[in-house]
Design a protein that fits this description.
Number of helices: 2
Shape: elongated
Distance between the termini: 40 Å
Structural class: alpha+beta
Radius of gyration: 22 Å
Strand content: 25-35%
Strand order of the largest sheet: 4-3-2-1-5
Order of helices and strands: EEEEEHH
Oligomer: single chain
Length: 127
Amino acid sequence: MEVFRKGDQVSIKGNPVYQKGLPFKYYQGRVGVVFSIGPKAIGVVTQKRVKGSKVDKLLYLRPEHLVKIKNTGSSKKIKEEQNLKLTEMVEEVSKKNLGEAETIKELVYEARRRWLRSKRFRSSKVE
């Protein structure tokens, strides 16, 4: 059993073995923040889209249906690095005028395609 503390980010994953405290199917896979801890249930705040706006929803779930999210800081760093690499590829493609992209959208698409292709070839090499 995992230990949850206030402020922890959790993912809602309903476990069908335990029927008590099972979340509604809409919340399956959603991310929330722990705001209260009781003897049997854990309070989670998550957002739901209602008529075009986001509304905070308070859910009380059993801990069997929650999974703690780890390494949230590292995932942000990875995304930042990917964005930097993508911007470098866009600059490189724009300098070389490869693919003769007419719009910025096509330019970004061409750079992303080249970046993914180079990534695919790097991961498939056997050392």
